[in-house]
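Final report, results section. Input specification for complex C-07:
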Amino acid sequence: MRSLRGWGLVLALFPLSLRALAAQERTTVGGYGEIHYTDATGPNTPAEINLKRFVVYLAHSFTDQLVFRSELEVEDAKIEGGQAGGEVALEQAYLDYRVRDWLTVRTGLVLPPVGIINETHEPPTFNGVDRPGFDHDVIPTTWRELGVGALGTVPGVAGLAYRVYLVNGLRADGFSADQGIREGRQEGREASFANPSLTGRLEWTRPGLKLGAAFWYGGTANGDTALGTGSFAAPVVLLAADVRYDVGAASFRGVAANISVSDAAAIDRRYGTAVGSRIAGGYLEAAYNVLHLLAPASSQKLAAFVRHERYDTQADVPAGVTRDRALARRLTTAGLTYKPTWNTAFKGDYQWVRNAAGTGEHEVLRLGVGYQF
Amino acid sequence: MTLAPAAPAVLCLALAAQAPPPARLAASLARVFGPGARVDTLHVDTAAVLRVSRNDSLLGFAAVGNVLGKDQPITFLVAVGPDDRLKDVDILVYREPYGGEVAYESWRRQFRGKRAADSLRVGREIRGISGATISVHAVTLGVQRLLAALTAWHQRGALR
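Structure output:
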């Protein structure tokens, strides 16, 4: 019998063995994966089925504060010399040192916190078999680079969190007209640090709502004298905003991004790649859990969704580069996501692929399964 | 999901590898039950339950549980009134860099007034949090189990 002031005694009653366990090192395994069936209309496009991703999540807690976290990915089931496709890669690998709620220091292969999919890409978390095209051609998911940074909650402002990283830069020699900055990523493989880059995010959360704003800023010249040798030579500036909103059985999400490649003219002269000087676009998605009405007692989900994406990897081009209007893309995707549990998903969708030039337009049927644990 | 009456003790200690800092626990109880309350520790099966009272009148019971988030345990408190209704949930220790939004009052308050027999489904009775999916499901399940255990113990007279 004691008052609140005597808490030491109360705690002494918690079994000592439990307190000892707290100090023990601990390894955690998880993972996610997805299988895709894809059938596009048009000649010479046979249907394909692919084990798109198999990812193992491995974490180890050295102490309560010091934790290593990693994701090792196998794409397309296998890699074989001389054959296209297939990849084994680390998607993330970093050491977190948690100092306070408002400060975790992170070092390693990190995910630039831009858009929604780049950081949260487990298949049951998004509708549609494949990730949005925008999250391939504009925001180059899964985007990961090496560096150091900090993250945490912003003290005094409920729901506000930040992440900021200093990482290696993109390489302009990988830029392209149709996929923008995508192949400029270095992904932790003997990466050039000629152009350090900054990336970060502010995020505001309350139940049902998440708002985010993110940036990337860094040079891309990689010491190429044709582009400049400064740390921030041939800079890329990315600004992005995203929203996720759930209300009742409905959920909505949207992302927009604008990427400025201000020295695109010099990059195009040097590499002849016709990269746009501005890459921009976004998407909006709405979904409704039809089981909310059809089976009110169920905890399963069957979401019907539609997503509309518009983006152009040549939203602006430097003088002398002819704009390819087929790169101004419009993708509309409608489908179903069935989730027997929150961490498994069976998906089917139909996509209309259109562009401003009206060339090569087609439709795609996709079926898939995904899981995370 | 519901809990078999025989199982609560096992379930609520299944992940009880973490004890909260005493000051954090004291602050949490003071917040839920008001300051200056008297707290006694009762042992039921293999679990420790806190009995909270003031001037010989029972205010309720509380217990500490742990669930696994993505890779770290989340230490939480469930407090119930003498009527077996959940008074409040508190996150005592959150250890991961993401998903800490489960500690926000705006999320926790959704549990208030719930009983063991009530349905607690993420996306229905409990609103989720984007980007905190694992923590939301883990804590919701943990609360449900601890609430069921406290209710079962109370109803069979092990807590009084």
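Chain B has a mean pLDDT of 88. Strands of chain B lie at 38-44, 47-54, 57-68, 73-80, 86-93. This concludes the modelling results for the funded period.
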